[in-house]
Amino acid sequence: xxxxxxxxxxxxxxxxxxxxxxxxxxxxxxxxxxxxxxxxxxxxxxxxxxxxxxxxxxxxxxxxxxxxxxxxxxxxxxxxxxxxxxxxxxxxxxxxxxxxxxxxxxxxxxxxxxxxxxxxxxxxxxxxxxxxxxxxxxxxxxxxxxxxxxxxxxx
Length: 155
Hints:
By secondary structure, this protein is mostly helical. It has four helices and no strands. Helix 1 runs antiparallel to helix 2 and helix 1 packs antiparallel against helix 3. 8% of the residues are buried.
């Protein structure tokens, strides 16, 4: 099935924004799909990095409470030594987690996103998930409830 860029796909198929533009071969769609899948992994890694950032911050806050409790329990010297050595310490060389996150975003995540978008713009007229839309068409049971090609208008 081939529907042009401005045309609307059949009611029981993907909409035009999820079809390859005229003249785009399946190898190109597959290659862009692989690039987008790689970006999705980078997005997941970024989320985990933010999780690391949040967990480390929570641990530092809990450490502060533990140090206060040690002081209140009469162990001020020990608490002070830990406070000077561990509280507020860099988690990697010269960096807190927010700096690690910023470096990741600036050095890797943003350029990766920009390249993926540029490739989609140049090869698929900016269309997203064209590869996945084809997979959906191949795998769904046409005409069966719960297997519709796309949302109804207004959904």
